[in-house]
Amino acid sequence: MISKGCEQCAKGGKMVLFVYGYCDQRDCFYCPLGENRKNVTDVYANERKVESDEDVIEEAKRMSALGTSITGGEPQEAMAKTTRYLRLLKDEFGEDHHTHLYTGIPGGRENMRRLSEAGLDEIRFHPPLELWGDMHGTEWEEILYVAREEGLTPAFEIPGIRAEPEFLEFLDEGAAEFCNVNEFEMSDGNYRRMQAEGFELQEGHMSAVEGSKDASIVEEMASHEKVYFCTSVFKDAAQHRNRLKRMARNVRREFDEVTDDGTLVYGKAFAAPERFEALGVPEEFYTVKTNHVEVAWWLLEEMVEDGDLDEGEIVEQYPTVNGTVVERTPVA
User: Phi and psi (nearest 5°) for 326?
Assistant: First the structure.
């Protein structure tokens, strides 16, 4: 990995902090934001909607976050919240909590200073596609040097739409520290506009765009020692899965099983709680809910098989704050 932020992300240790979804200066056809994130003044820490500063800290602790990746829109009013969260995270977890910001505007010196003073470590710029190849001598070149002067590590993070040698020039000149090229992807939020621009999904793939691993991108850019090509498969198989595993280890109960995908598996029964006590089930193997009992899945299977319970179900769910259920399997 090229940056500390990328190393932490690969381990699943980077919390994603989304601050607002308005982009006053941009309207990128490939913007992946869905309806709940685009043109909103909401803040999310991973999947958790943030209602208070404590929500940010709780989510970071839930996943034993090593650092935080900040993204979202670009309204100036979001800056106040961003700097507050940066200070909050550094105060709570110390200077080793690495933070990076992904932004689509250059921002200017004052913003670079404010971010640096608040504790930001690294800033990744995403210039508009229409300027690629013509950024030298513009504010996009200047801000790289300004960010470094203000104590930040400047870098680029761009979608793999096409190979663009100018980014490599900035790296060779020492203006930018590295460049992340993300595999070009479709999402629920952008697929209509992407198709209108002539892009299609790779056959057999859920998100990667046809041609996003084009040889020119891989050979001309990703072969550079300061360029990292981040594939959609890696994001799902490593980053997301490892983040779920970190969460699962922290929130699992004694009887929850953690799968290789980072999900939690347990049994769900609808018998009276007294039934479990009468059967001598140890307290650490079940917990009583409002209208059901959650129990070790393997114990549920045994109890149904032995006739001690009539039925139940095995539940697999994410360890996220909303606990999305992945699968339910009846046991009878």
Answer: -90, -40
